Input
Amino acid sequence: MTAINSVTDLTLDGDVAVITLNSPPVNALSANVREGLFEGFKAAIADPAARSIVLICEGRTFIAGADITEFGGAMKGPSLQDVQDTMENSPKPVVAAIHGTALGGGLEVALVANYRVGVPSARFGLPEVNLGLLPGAGGTQRLPRVVGPEKALEMMTSGRHAPAKEALAMGLIDELVEEGKLKEGAIAFARKAVAEGRPLVKVRDNNSKVEAARGKPEIFAEFRKANARKFRGFLAPEYNIRCIEAAVNLPFAEGLGVERKLFGELMSGSQSAAQRYSFFAERQAQKIPDVADDTPLIPIKKVGVIGAGTMGGGISMNFANVGIAVVIVEQKQEPLDRGLATIRKNYERTAARGGITAAQVEERMALITGSLSMEDSFADVDLVIEAVFERMDIKKDIFTKLDAICKPGAILATNTSGLNIDEIASVTKRPEAVIGLHFFSPANVMKLLEIVRADHTSKSVIATSMKLAKQIGKVAALVGVCPGFVGNRILGARQREAQKLVLEGAMPWDVDRVLYDFGFPMGPFAMSDLAGLDIGWVKEKSNGATIRDVLCEADRRGQKTGAGYYDYDENRNANPSPFTEKVIHDFIVKSGANPRTIGDEEILERCIYPMINEGMKILEEGKAIRASDIDVVWQNGYGWPVYRGGPMWYGDQIGAAKVLAKMQEFQATMGDEFKPAAALEKLVADGKKFSDL
Ligand code: CAA
Output
């Protein structure tokens, strides 16, 4: 064995040279890895005893991409292009042996090998789009040549990781190798390639699939049209599409030129900077300073859920999806049956779309049982999640019962979206077992899990909850107990301003348009119409005191009644409503004020800056660990546009000083609701950035 450098070895297995990379955690293409590959391939090519070359990785995965931490700095050592040129021009067959994930630059390295083999659990993708980028090492020109432009469009604009079986079917790998026997399989493949005198195929020369699509611009036009909504606001999907168009219409070398130019634009732009930040923010959020990595975990084999409504059902599906048994308790048979039927319908819809198989529907349903009795069902659960009505007395009653029923060591969780969890925990004799697991509706779809740590929650319970979140595919952020926690508390700041703006003369559709154009999927008033204006509205108590009261009293309760803030046509298209406009106008006149014209800039600043300010209050109270955790919450739970990083990241783009100055100006003219957080004043005085927190 020859050590090429600290992360690369070269060994000879008979006449096959094996280059092994070992650069934890994910063998990313750092300067060291590039050097190892460059020198390793040169040495293998020069070794007369080697007739073929296998590239394989140690650890959990094949190369998972470029080293994202290097982006934005000066590149050291050989470039990825140098590595790829050496591999692609090798006079001996090169075989990439793939396990784990071959992603981004990793797949691009594999695509300059002559052959690729992988184990059944391996996955393949070009996920750069999720970092606001495109594959910048020839992937945009090579992938369409292997899988065809249509498939490349779908893979590159979604960033999806395709499983090995699919990769084999679409020609991305040449052979599947038995799980656990990758090295032997790859060496055997390499030997066979030599023995059979197989040609040194190069993906770059394989033009048949791109040529077949030449002169068919409709492929791209239709793809853009079909995905316009999904791609709205993002640059990277469009740039990926342009590169695939170049692959179809231009010779390989010219296509590479287009790729290089567009990659450079994205890399130096603000969207990718925000998206790369988000990648690390999500991972950072997993790290809890006072909870050590080796904190003992509580094994979770069976989960109890209280409530078979939309929330309880969605929560249950998360666990069944990963093979964890769930028992759902309801008070009456009819809502229980309805809840279970809804879960089945959801799974069947996913199956009809090809997301899971019919057998998987049955497997998952078999893991979910229903019951009318906590006493009968919860004695052996490892975790119970309460998802009932948001009322403190009901929650306390449930937790008193859970304390009596559940086994010692079980985690007792509440899905409350803002009630005081310390108060809930206080009715139990084991407050250390109590935690908030705040799912977002629909709970089987939304990525965010706000994990709420109460005063006495044990580290083990926190560590287990964080791990479980990852297991069920959620993005978790740990927050502290305060009204609304992090997400809803910041939402409250925005809602307050949205309502006030309307009472000063802005129309709901003006506010919505500004926030939609900013990148939110919808504005607050459209959102209210969708959710139903009557949530929390009580007919008997309604006295026309608010705009909402008046709208609800006129049976304008949102989309479901065909009218709310907006009027809706039969296709649920929203139109500005003269009725709402008059209601608003009457309110303003009654208050003795004059409606004024409010510009888009003021709408945006009034809605967004108080959110940033609220974020600072949350940080100063220690209810979030870091500014980036707040951004994780808002991106994954509230539709904050990913390419704008999150409220705190956005604050840095605006500049903390400007945010403070505006808050002070608003405070002077509109009152103390705009009072800047002390932490914001300090941040500016110290000349620091939000991201420093
Ligand atoms: N560069 C640097 N660090 C990386 C990395 C990368 N490409 N990918 C992962 N890491 C780090 C993570 O930050 C994390 O570090 P910490 O433990 O310090 O938090 C660690 O590796 C493990 O990552 P995960 O927690 O995400 O582990 P996982 O097992 O859940 O997932 C993964 C593994 C699927 C590879 C996931 O990390 C991932 O999707 N990585 C990004 C892949 C990617 O986007 N590749 C393209 C890069 S851009 C590119 O390649 C441009 C080009 O064309 C040349």
In short: The radius of gyration is 28 Å. The chain has a mean pLDDT of 96. Residues 505-510+522-591 form a domain with the N-(1-d-carboxylethyl)-l-norvaline Dehydrogenase; domain 2 fold (CATH 1.10.1040.10). Residues 600-620 form the longest helix (21 residues).
